[in-house]
Amino acid sequence: MKKVYINGMGCISAQPTFDSVFLETAVVNTTDNVLSVVAPPYKDFIPPAASRRMGKGVKNGIVAAALALKEAGDPALDAIITGTGMGCIEDSEKFLRGILDNQEEFLTPTSFIQSTHNTVGGQIALGLQCKAYNFTYVNGGNSFESGLLDGSMQLTSGEANTVLTGGIDESAAFTIDFFKVAGLIKKAEEQPFVLLGATTTGSVFGEGATFFVLENEKKTSSYAELVAVNICNNLSVSEAAQEVVAFIQKNNYTVSDIDAVVLGYSGDVVFDEYYKAISSGLFKEIPQIYYKHLSGEYHTASAFGLWMAAKILKTQEFPEMVCANTPRRKQYKTILLYNQFRGEDHSFILLRQC
């Protein structure tokens, strides 16, 4: 079986990650319970006439994909695979609002056309004139990982040589209001919002788009080797710890081989128990990293976590603002990522320095 390498990355997030090396200008926002993306210069990537008709999720996806492809040397693609939890929710809201405001009459189709979950993948393919395999996964908190698993399987089996895959989600006003009512988002009066040691339910929500170019050939631009991906729907806290060990051992590693673990702490006192059980047990003496205080929580936030882990393996450093404990290693060769979304959709990703 062939190996899988991350040869290019592009990230649009609540931090200026599109024009920095690695979080050197990142800022921790403890006053907002919903984080918006730092918008890149869209006009540098998308013609203004086309950009005006696109939702922000589509534009962010196109720019993130373009940045990843540029880093990888603009290779020809054998597949475009996207993952999204909510899709282009902003255009969905516009269409539904139009139905109500116009008594179901005189509706323009633009918002409906742009509201489908596979709009991002389709627009990327149109821009590249790519007629290869194009698929979108909508699997809740495992949406991005499902696409990552699909792409890696195609590469290891030899069905593809180059795959573009990523995760995209956007926030929209009405949906955010619904999430607040449902208790998914922290209350404004609970600020400052601090993830580690949080004592309240709900999370600081966010949005973003992160893309990766996966290839079966190691290049000078390679960030890391993608060793394995595993996803599970439902696990108890104790089962999650057991699954982590089983995942590591299945790939011929031991816990002591892991140089750092990236955990998806969201600040929800109920669901962060999954991470606490692992961090205080298996990985107590191993460097622990967290990231959702920078990106916010959303269905495909784990793509931001993977972007950060790959950066660590290439640069061999990370800022103090992402450290969840004090241990450090002289060298980082193997990193494990664990994420779950509100107690479901658990994912495990193993990266290795290349």
TrEMBL record:
Gene Ontology molecular function, alphabetical: acyltransferase activity
Q: Which InterPro entries does this UniProt record tie to the protein?
A: Ketoacyl_synth_N, Thiolase-like
Question: What single Pfam family name could you report for this chain, choosing any that match?
Answer: Ketoacyl-synt_2
| The Beta-ketoacyl synthase-like N-terminal domain, residue ranges | 40-165
Q: Which domain of life is it from?
A: Bacteria
Protein name per Swiss-Prot or TrEMBL: 3-oxoacyl-ACP synthase
